[in-house]
Amino acid sequence: MNTTSSLITELRLILRDLPAVIWSEAELTHALRQAYHDLLAASGEDWLINGLDGETNPTTLPPILASLLLRGALGYALLGRAAERLDAFDFHAGQQAAALTTARILLDHFQKGLAGLNRYRLRRLQSAENPPYPPAEDPLQPGWPME
């Protein structure tokens, strides 16, 4: 099950920062939150991630989407790091440009993945046990008239 803690650990593994020397917990949580909100907006779903913003319910994000979420979080983390280093003197002048380029590529792939969520949502709606609209006999919201 993907929790905020396990996703942050995955981010640290990918970023080669297990001892948390470069990225703080708050920075990675912020990047994860940004990608998560983008994913929710693109999918139209209300998935939960246990531990994110104090969420105590179990994670409902489909496991297949964890890699997409991580890709977006990585892009946002690198973008934040590059922006933070904008005014700093650095002996490795190309490092900031490399971080920006990598962030742009990751976020481009993230956006393409988000665009694919339309197909995922359509398949889910087509295979739902219950129709995705209110029943005609519901007095508060009587279905969608087809007239």
First-to-last CA distance: 45 Å
* Shape designation: elongated
Unreliable stretches: none
Strand content: under 5%
> How is the main sheet built?
none
Please trace the helix and strand order, writing H or E for each element.
HHHHH
Number of domains: 1
Structure, explained:
This protein has helices at 4-14, 25-43, 66-84, 94-115, 117-126. It is mainly alpha-helical and 147 residues long. Helix 3 packs antiparallel against helix 4. The longest helix has 22 residues, at 94-115. The mean pLDDT is 84. It has one domain (4-126). The chain is elongated, with a radius of gyration of 19 Å. Helices cover 55% and strands 0% of the residues. The chain has 5 helices and no strands.
